[in-house]
Design a protein that fits this description.
Strand 5 (113-119), helix 5 (131-140) and strand 6 (144-148) form a beta-alpha-beta unit. This protein has a single domain, classed as 3-Layer(aba) Sandwich (Rossmann fold), CATH 3.40.50.300. The longest helix has 11 residues, at 97-107. The radius of gyration is 16 Å and the shape is globular. It has helices spanning 19-26, 69-73, 91-95, 97-107, 131-140, 156-161, 163-172, 194-203, and strands at residues 3-12, 41-50, 53-62, 79-87, 113-119, 144-148, 179-182. It contains eight helices and seven strands; from the N terminus they run βαββαβααβαβααβα. By secondary structure, it is α/β, with parallel strands linked by helices. Strands 1, 2, 3, 4, 5, 6 and 7 form a seven-stranded mixed β-sheet that branches. It binds guanosine-5'-triphosphate and magnesium ion. Magnesium ion binds next to helix 1.
């Protein structure tokens, strides 16, 4: 019998850095040029394979706008992975990364794995944060670093998959929350609607 593990990921960062676009790109959707700001929280899911295991990633797309911070926080607990996203053309969004990281450390689980994501590499001519600045921050805080473009799709898969190495180790040590479920899903399962997902979250199945 085949099994898969469920893992919650949260995606955080300032408004406009491209969190929703990164998730849409990972789910194979077309790039959205306009900024449709996330209201409250959004959701997508995808099956992936790594370390001879199948994982169902439950990806929580938080709102960068401050007004929604308390809603976002309530999703931090139980997350195995966190994508800390900034926009390489927006220095302020990079300077705020520490604040997002501290919030997750405060409200989330102790063994959450972080990946620092510098997004919008297709806008190289407008770059305001160097690769080294991102890499240094990630090194200092012992997290993976990756630069992406949700527009071109560059490194988007890696942003979600690379932390699975760390998470997998923590699953083996029973340090992260996961559920081992019988596989009756297609590997390329379509993302579900937000309502369905919220139901799923409520029943914790
Ligand atoms: N050029 C370029 N634009 C991007 C990229 N990713 C996102 N954008 C644009 O940046 C804007 C904001 O993207 P969103 O994904 O909605 O940003 P967000 O972080 O989800 O914002 P909130 O939901 O308000 O927190 C949109 O106009 C996107 O088209 C990218 O990689 N390259
Ligand atoms: Mg959004």
């Amino acid at each position: 019998m085949d099994f898969y593990y469920t893992l919650n990921y949260i995606v955080v960062g300032d408004t406009g850095v491209g969190k929703s676009c990164i998730i849409l790109s990972f789910l194979g959707e077309t790039f959205r040029a306009e900024h449709t700001t996330t209201i409250g929280i959004d959701f997508g899911s995808k099956m992936v394979s790594a370390h001879s295991k199948k994982f169902k990633l439950l990806i929580w797309d938080t709102a960068g706008q401050e007004a929604f911070n308390s809603i976002s926080r309530s999703y931090y607990r139980g997350a195995a992975g966190a994508l800390l996203v900034y926009d390489i053309t927006n220095k302020e969004s990079f300077l705020h990364i520490k604040k997002w990281m501290d919030e997750i450390k405060h409200y989330g689980d102790a063994h959450i794995s972080f990946v620092l994501v510098g997004n919008k590499t297709d806008l190289e001519e407008k770059r305001a944060v160097t690769y080294e600045e991102g890499a240094d921050f990630a090194k200092e805080h012992e997290m993976i670093f990756i630069e992406t473009s949700a527009k071109s799709g560059q490194n988007i898969n890696d942003a979600f998959i690379k932390i699975l190495d760390k998470i997998n180790e923590k699953i083996d040590k029973k340090l992260v929350q996961t559920k081992r479920l019988q596989d009756n899903h297609r590997i390329d399962e379509e993302p579900k609607s937000k309502t369905e997902i919220l139901k799923e979250k409520a029943c914790a199945c």
